[in-house]
Design brief:
alpha+beta, 3 domains, elongated
Length: about 475
């Protein structure tokens, strides 16, 4: 695409021809010629369906009465090139091209129908704020400012994608956020070469430290309160136009098991819920592997009565335990995906009925044993307790790898898998922050607010992990 800029001229007809050519002669480009003075006329340009025509008419009427009123409504006071006019039109603005002048003016008259603020569908909560982000960038910024009414909140606007020119906002807290991390974020965003950025995940893939890992190195959330909590810790948030998911960085592994609701409850209840999620994550990843390893290699560790029960249940099954396990886990994932993709009215019913009917039929047909159905169901329920982030999918993928290692080497294989996993996690970084922190490097004082929820009165310091400039959360006494 030719990047050469074409300047506006004093010839209105030529400007219209060049602008129509740059906009690919699109049929929804409206150009209306209007007289504003006896010897002065203007061509009003806008995209049909993206402009509030009543607001535009009102502004033009005000302009005819008083030329000084219009600048109050302008985003860019003046544009001098055809490309600038085309970019403004594509963004939903209106452009005024004055006859006899080699420039135009841009007015914010965008009016696109978007959904209103609702509770986040993927991060529902029992207690706490219910508002969630929408596809409107300005609304999302307003939600953050509404909940964090601080003059220290800094919003920096950027455009990414030379074709889509997608707007995004980088949020940070002055005096708290580390400027080195903020500078690194700016550098990575400025270096994005993609032509199209349609969603926050596009940005995440370009700026993440390691694009070849399945582990999320940047957090994604629909909740303004979660973004605000991250900003108060010294982290950085990125809002992207057209998506309700904000990016939060840096991000460490143990934060994947936290939810903002932990801080809405009493710290005992919040700590118990967090421990349950951590325990469920371990069970969801390792239970099938331990079952397969036990029935394949380590019969002596099972009580005799239970071993006899397992043996009698497996007697009619023609497949080894590892094949049983893989069949049940794959079937469970298929039903889970089907339940998500189907309409809400029937999705849950299909998942439940499908699991009951298929499980019962598989047992009666002698394809799987009853205890394998129990193991698969318990594993699936444990993964449901995890927050609906990328780590949920990672745990479900790791099930298969751990089960395979358990079927080959028993408990030794599982321990090898765990050691390899921890070693790999320790090698990851999120904007220079160790991914296993504060577990590795070990910081006991900060680990107490990760594994459990520390009382607000004792949560005096921000995590050193994110290198916040101001560590203290409390106001100093006079």
């Amino acid at each position: 695409m030719d990047d050469q800029k074409i300047l506006l001229t004093s010839d209105a007809s030529e400007n219209k021809r060049l602008l129509l050519e740059r906009m690919q002669a699109t049929d929804d480009l409206i150009m209306v010629h209007s007289a504003i003075e006896e010897n002065q006329s203007v061509t009003v340009c806008y995209i049909a369906g993206m402009t509030d025509t009543r607001k535009l008419d009102k502004l033009l009427h005000l302009y005819k009465q008083d030329k000084q009123l219009l600048p109050a409504f302008q985003l860019d006071a003046t544009v001098y090139t055809i490309e600038e006019c085309a970019d403004a039109l594509a963004a939903g603005m209106s452009v005024l091209l004055f006859d006899g002048r080699g420039y135009g003016q841009v007015i914010d008259t965008m009016d696109v129908q978007l959904r209103s603020v609702e509770e986040p569908a993927s991060e529902a909560t029992v207690k706490g704020p219910r508002s969630g982000f929408t596809e409107s960038l300005q609304n999302n910024l307003a939600l953050v400012r509404y909940h964090l009414a601080s003059p220290d909140l800094k919003a920096e606007f950027r455009k990414v994608g030379h074709l889509t020119k997608t707007n995004l906002i980088i949020l940070s807290l002055g005096g708290i956020t580390n400027p080195e991390i903020l500078r690194e974020v700016h550098q990575r965003i400025d270096e994005i070469p993609a032509a199209a950025i349609l969603e926050s995940d596009y940005v995440e893939e370009w700026i993440t430290d390691n694009r070849g890992t399945i582990f999320p190195l940047i957090e994604s959330t629909e909740r303004p309160d979660r973004v605000i909590g991250a900003l108060l810790d010294g982290r950085i948030a990125i809002l992207v136009q057209g998506t309700p998911f904000a990016l939060v960085l840096p991000f460490v592994f143990l934060q994947a098991f936290q939810v903002s609701e932990d801080y809405a409850w009493n710290y005992y209840i919040g700590s118990i819920m967090r421990l349950i999620r951590l325990f469920s994550g371990v069970i969801g990843m390792l239970l099938p592997a331990f079952y397969v390893a036990t029935v394949t290699f380590h019969h002596e560790l099972v009580p005799t009565t239970l071993l006899q029960s397992i043996a009698s249940a497996k007697e009619p099954v023609p497949f080894p335990a590892v094949v049983e396990s893989f069949m049940m886990m794959i079937a469970f994932e298929i039903m889970r995906e089907a339940g998500i993709r189907m309409p809400k009215q029937v999705g849950q019913a299909v998942s439940i009925v499908g699991a009951l009917i298929l499980g019962q039929a598989a047992v009666e047909a002698g394809i799987v044993s009853p205890i394998m159905v129990i193991v698969a169901a318990l594993t699936g329920i444990c993964t449901f307790t995890l927050p609906p982030t990328a780590i949920n999918y990672v745990i479900r993928i790791l099930q298969f790898g751990m089960t395979l290692l358990g079927s080959l080497l028993g408990y030794v294989g599982i321990m090898v898998g765990i050691i390899m996993l921890l070693t790999y996690l320790a090698s990851l970084r999120s904007f220079g922050i160790p991914y296993l922190g504060p577990l590795a490097p070990f910081r006991l004082d900060e680990l107490t607010d990760v594994v459990v929820r520390r009382p607000h009165s004792q949560n005096k310091l921000r995590p050193s992990l994110f290198r916040a400039i101001q560590r203290s959360r409390f106001r100093s006494k006079p």
